[in-house]
C-alpha cells in the first residue's frame, strides 16, 4: 500500500486540555457537538484536544478534511471507535480496511448506482402508501414520537428492498436491539472512557444479546434464501449473485452477513434520523414549510411522487440538503494516522487520532453565510454555495463516500414529498430538543409532534 508522505514540520496545533477532576472532560463528553463547535470557534481550524489517556485532533477546515478523506486517505485508517462498531457490523464496508475493503467496495458499488437504486422506488412507494394508511386512522393532532415513526417506516422499506420480506413481528426485536447497540456504542466513542469489552458489565451483556438477536434474524434469512435457490431482485439477491472479478467466487455467509448488517442498520437508522430533523425544522420554520407545500401541490397535485418526479422537486431537495447540513446523521468521522503526516502545516504523529465533523465544518463561517440558520434558499443560488467540495460532506467523501448515498436521497425525497402533501407536523409545545451524538446524531428525547391532515 502506498502512503503519500508529507515532510513533518515543527508546528504543533493549539492544545485544549480536559481534566477529569475539574469536570470539563465530563462536560465535553456530555455535550460533544456543542463542545466541538465551541472548541473550533475558540482555537481555529485544527486543534488538539487532550482527553484523559489520549489526544484527538479536530480538523475543521475543508482543506484538512479533504486531505484526510481523499488526498492522503491511505494514511488514515478507521479509528478504534469503528472497532467497536465492528462488533456489530463485522467486516462490512463501514468497518473493513485495506484489500478486503477495496475488494468488497468494487463488488458492491454497481448495486448502488442511481440506475440500480431506481428499481426500488416502487417498493418504497408501496410502503409509504401503507404507512400513510396508518396515519389516516389517527385522531386529529394526536402526538407521536416522529423519530420512532420514521424508524418504523424506513425499517419496513429496507427490510423489503434488502430481503424482499415483511419483517413483521421481528420489527420490534430489531428496533430494541438497535437502541441497545447504539446506547452501548455511545459510551465507547473515542471521546469517552470505557471499560474493555471483556470486562463484564450489564450494558455489555445487553449488547451481546442484541447482536445475537440480529444475527439470528439475518443468518436465518440468508439460510432460507440458500435453501430456496431462487434468484431474487432484492439487495440480498444481488449480493448473493455478485462475483469477484479476480477469481469468480461469491461471498460466503459471513461476508454476506456483514454487508447485510451494514446496509440494513445504516440504511434505515440514518435515513430515519435525517427525516426526523427535517420535520422538526419545518415545524420551526412555517415560511419554508409553506413554500414546500406549494411546490408539492404544483408538481404532484396530491398523488404520490414517482422516481421521475424527483428532479422536478428542487425546493424539496433544497430542504433536505439544508437539513443534512445542520443535522448530518453521520456527524463525526474518526481516523488514525498510520505514519506521521502534515495537515495544513501542522504535524500529525504516527498513530495519532484525528476527527472530522460535518456538524462543525457545515457551520464554518468562512464557507457559509448564516451558518446556524435553516435556509434552503442557499441551495437554489449557486453563488451562496461553497466552492470547496469538502465544505459539505453529509455522506462523507473520497473513496469511502457512503455507498448508499443515492438510495438514501431517493428514499428521503419520496417519503418527505409523500407525507408533506397530506399531513402537517408540529412540535408539541415544551418538548425538549437536544442532540444525542452517538454513532449517529439522534434526538436525545425523541421528537414528539402532532399530526394533522392538510386541507385539500
Automatic annotation (TrEMBL):
Keywords: Heme, Iron, Metal-binding, Monooxygenase, Oxidoreductase
Highest taxon, organism lineage: Bacteria
Heme listed as a keyword: yes
Binding site for heme: 402
Necessary cofactors: heme
GO molecular function: heme binding; iron ion binding; monooxygenase activity; oxidoreductase activity, acting on paired donors, with incorporation or reduction of molecular oxygen
Pfam families named in the record: p450 (PF00067)
Family, similarity comment: Belongs to the cytochrome P450 family.
Protein name (Swiss-Prot/TrEMBL): Cytochrome P450
Species in which this protein is naturally found: Ardenticatena maritima
Amino acid at each position: 500500500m502506498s502512503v503519500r508522505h508529507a515532510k513533518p514540520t515543527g508546528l504543533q496545533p493549539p492544545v485544549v486540555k480536559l481534566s477529569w477532576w475539574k469536570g470539563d472532560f465530563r462536560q465535553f463528553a456530555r455535550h460533544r457537538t456543542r463542545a466541538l463547535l465551541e472548541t473550533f470557534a475558540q482555537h481555529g481550524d485544527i486543534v488538539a484536544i487532550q482527553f484523559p489517556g489520549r489526544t484527538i485532533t479536530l480538523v475543521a477546515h475543508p482543506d484538512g478534511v479533504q486531505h484526510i478523506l481523499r488526498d492522503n486517505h491511505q494514511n488514515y485508517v478507521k479509528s478504534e471507535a469503528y472497532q467497536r462498531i465492528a462488533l456489530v457490523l463485522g467486516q462490512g464496508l463501514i468497518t473493513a480496511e485495506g484489500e478486503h475493503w477495496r475488494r468488497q467496495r468494487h463488488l458492491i458499488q454497481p448495486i448502488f448506482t442511481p440506475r440500480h437504486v431506481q428499481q426500488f422506488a416502487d417498493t418504497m412507494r408501496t410502503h409509504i402508501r401503507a404507512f400513510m394508511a396508518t396515519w389516516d386512522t389517527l385522531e386529529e393532532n394526536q402526538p407521536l414520537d416522529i423519530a420512532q415513526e420514521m424508524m418504523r417506516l424506513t425499517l419496513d422499506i429496507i427490510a423489503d428492498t434488502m430481503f424482499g420480506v415483511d419483517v413483521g413481528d421481528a420489527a420490534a426485536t430489531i428496533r430494541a436491539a438497535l437502541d441497545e447497540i447504539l446506547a452501548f456504542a455511545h459510551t465507547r466513542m473515542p471521546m469517552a472512557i470505557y471499560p474493555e469489552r471483556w470486562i463484564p458489565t450489564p450494558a455489555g451483556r445487553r449488547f451481546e444479546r442484541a447482536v445475537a438477536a440480529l444475527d439470528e434474524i439475518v443468518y436465518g434469512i440468508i439460510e432460507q434464501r440458500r435453501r430456496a435457490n431462487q434468484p431474487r431482485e432484492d439487495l440480498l439477491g444481488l449480493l448473493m449473485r455478485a462475483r469477484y472479478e479476480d477469481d469468480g467466487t461469491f461471498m460466503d455467509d459471513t461476508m454476506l452477513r456483514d454487508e447485510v448488517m451494514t446496509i440494513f442498520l445504516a440504511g434505515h437508522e440514518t435515513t430515519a434520523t435525517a427525516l426526523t430533523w427535517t420535520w422538526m425544522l419545518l415545524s420551526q420554520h412555517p415560511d419554508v414549510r409553506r413554500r414546500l407545500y406549494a411546490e408539492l401541490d404544483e408538481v404532484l397535485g396530491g398523488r404520490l411522487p414517482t422516481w421521475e418526479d424527483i428532479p422536478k422537486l428542487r425546493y424539496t431537495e433544497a430542504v433536505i440538503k439544508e437539513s443534512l447540513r445542520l443535522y448530518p446523521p453521520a456527524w463525526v468521522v474518526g481516523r488514525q494516522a498510520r505514519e506521521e503526516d502534515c495537515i495544513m502545516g501542522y504535524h500529525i504523529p504516527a498513530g495519532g487520532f484525528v476527527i472530522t465533523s460535518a456538524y462543525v465544518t457545515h457551520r464554518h463561517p468562512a464557507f457559509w453565510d448564516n451558518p446556524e440558520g435553516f435556509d434552503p434558499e442557499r441551495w437554489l443560488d449557486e453563488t451562496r454555495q461553497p466552492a470547496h467540495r469538502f465544505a459539505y460532506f453529509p455522506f462523507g467523501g473520497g473513496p469511502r463516500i457512503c455507498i448508499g448515498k443515492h438510495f438514501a436521497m431517493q428514499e428521503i425525497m419520496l417519503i418527505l414529498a409523500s407525507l408533506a402533501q397530506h399531513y402537517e407536523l408540529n412540535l408539541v409545545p415544551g418538548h425538549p430538543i437536544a442532540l444525542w451524538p452517538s454513532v449517529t446524531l439522534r434526538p436525545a428525547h425523541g421528537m414528539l409532534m402532532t399530526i394533522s391532515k392538510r386541507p385539500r
